[in-house]
Fold this sequence. Notes:
Layout: E1 9-12, H1 17-24, H2 28-31, E2 36-38, E3 45-52, E4 69-76, E5 79-88, H3 89-101, H4 113-135, H5 147-151, E6 162-163, H6 173-183, E7 194-198, H7 200-210, E8 246-248, E9 251-255, E10 264-268, E11 272-275, E12 284-289, H8 291-294, E13 298-311, E14 318-320
Helix pairs in contact: 1-4
Amino acid sequence: MATTTSITTTYAGEFAGEYIAAALLEANTISQGGITVKPNVKFKEVIKKVSVDDIVKDATCDFDPTSTVTLTEAILQPEEQQVNLQLCKKDFQSDWEAVQMGYSSFDSLPPSFADFIIGHVAAKVAERTEKSIWEGSTATNGQFDGLTTKISTDAGLPSAQEVAGATITSSNVIAELGKLVDAIPASLYGSDDLFLYVSQNIARAYVRALGGFAAVQNAAGSDNVGSIGANGVGSNGTMWYQGGGLSIDGVKIFVANGLGDNKAVAAEKSNLFFGTGLLSDHNEVKLLDMADLDGSQNARLVMRFSAGVQYAQISDITTYGISNTAN
C-alpha cells in the first residue's frame, strides 16, 4: 500500500502565535531590530506623546508652575489580514523528502510536512509584511498603511526635515546622505537608537563608494574628476565590505528592504512601532488536506492575523526622497 501524507491540522488563538510570529517577525525591519514591536495589540493601542516648553526657569521662593505640558496621542491599530491558498502536495513532496533524508541545507528539520508547508508560506508573508511596513497602503488589498505612507500626509513634519531626493549613485551617495544627516534635529543627533533607514540601492552605492573606486562629482555635476579614498577602506577596494554594520557621520545605517529606491528615513527606533496581536484569539492557522473530501492532492492553507505600524513624534523624523503632500 502506498504511503500517503495527511497534513490536516488546525491552530487557533495563542497556539497560532508561534506560526504567525514566524510569518510576521521575519520581516527584515523587525527581525534585525529596526523597529519597536508591540506584540499583544488585540484591537488598538494609544501611544502617548508628551511635549513641554522651556521647563527650566529662574528660581524664586514660591512654587510657580509656569511650564506647559501638552499631551497628545497616536493610535496604533493593526489591521486584520488573511492568507487563503490552495497548494498541490505533489509540488512540495520532493523537497520535503530531500529535507527528511538530509539532502538539504536546512539547519533544522521541520517536524512535520505541515510545518514545512506553513514555513514556506510564512516566508512569503514576511516579505509582504516588510514592504507594507514602509510603503504599504491600506487601499491595496493585503496591505496596511506603511510608515512612509503616513509620513507623506502628516502636516506635522517640519519642512526643514523633508530633504529632496535624487537618483543615488556611488558618486553622490555620500553627499546625499550628508544632506539627510545635516537635517536631523540637534536634539536627536548622537542618540543611541538613531538610525538612517535606507533602501537597498542606497546601501549598495554607499558600500561601493567606500570601496574607493567611485568617481567624484565636481560642482558642475561632472563625473570622473577623481576617486573616493584611493583603494577604499583598508585598501581593500570593493572587497572591504564583508557584512556587518554601516554608519555615516556617526549615525548608524539600517538597510530597510521594504523601502523603495532612492528613499531614506532618519528616526529613532523607539519612535517607530509595529503592532500585532500574536496572542489574540483572532489568530488562526489551518492546513486542510482535501484528499478525503474531493480525492485531490490539494491542500488549503488559511492564516489570519493582524499587523500595523505607527510613529509617536513626527517632529523627530527626517525624510529623504519622500514627498510630503501636507506641507
